[in-house]
Amino acid sequence: MLKLLLIFFSISLFSCQNDSIDDAVAIFSESEYKSYNLHFYPSTMRMVNLNDSPEFNELVKDIEKLEYYTVSEISKDELDQFKSILKDQSYTEMISFQSDGNDVVAFAPEKVDQHEYLILIELQGKYQLARIQGLFNPLKIFELTESFESGEVLDVFSLMETRQNFDGEKRGRRRNRD
User: Fold this and answer.
1) What angle do CA 83, 87, 88 make, to 5 degrees?
2) How high is the pLDDT of residue 80?
3) What is the mean pLDDT of the chain?
4) Sheet harboring 34-40: ordered strands across?
5) What is the dihedral of CA 151, 153, 158, 159, to 10 degrees?
6) 56-110 pLDDT, tens per residue?
7) How far apart are the first and last CA of the chain?
8) Are 69 and 28 a contacting pair, CB within 8 Å?
9) Cα angle, residue 20 at apex, residues 82 and 96 outer, rounded to 5°
10) d(Cα 119, Cα 76) in Å, to the nearest integer?
11) What is the 3 state secondary structure string of the chain?
């Protein structure tokens, strides 16, 4: 009986320490400060390609799913926890750069058979997280960003920011009337 209890305790202890990528993503997806989230599948990625750009199609052809989360506020502890989980799951910072005042960091798995990437973006105190499932070269982030900025591809992210700002203004006007 004692042996059985020790085995159960060991398994419980190990499973509590074994965070997954889902736990890292949950810091954003379940945040009380979540602004919005978007989920893209191959069909929706093709729909945003307004000019049927072959370069964009090539860039996203092997992506199975893209999840996108924004949060208006996140603590340093939550960011540290996010990075700790990634480290525990053998993810490494593949690339980091600044673009138009945004800090962008791409994380990739060290295992070649694992095809899930995370891109963390900080913009003026707000955070965005993209979770990409499927084959994707994180070094192609520049090209993906240029596709949205060029107008070849519908910039859904800017539309959502505009919608979020509009909804916030509407709520403010309602409060002022009351």
Assistant:
1) 115
2) 92
3) 76
4) 34-40, 63-71, 126-134, 116-123, 102-109, 91-99
5) 110
6) 888 888 999 999 898 988 889 999 999 999 999 999 998 888 877 788 899 999 8
7) 66
8) yes
9) 40
10) 17
11) CHHHHHHHHHHHHHHHHCCCHHHHHHHHHCCCCEEEEEEECHHHHHHCCCCCCHHHHHHHCCEEEEEEEEECCCCHHHHHHHHHHHHHCCEEEEEEEEECCEEEEEEEECCCCCCEEEEEEEECCEEEEEEEEECCCHHHHHHHHHHHHHCCCCCHHHHHHHHHHHHHHHHHHHHHHC
CA distances from 146 to 56, 99, 149 (A): 10, 11, 5
Segment 100-124 shows an average pLDDT of 87
Query: Which tokens in the block code for residue 70?
Result: 């924004």
Q: Which amino acid is at 143?
A: E
| Residue type present at position 75 | S
Rg (CA), the chain: 19
Q: Which distant-in-sequence residues (6+ apart) come within 8 Å of 98 by Cβ?
A: 104
When comparing pLDDT for 105 and 178, which is higher? 105
Please report the pLDDT score of residue 161 as a whole number.
60
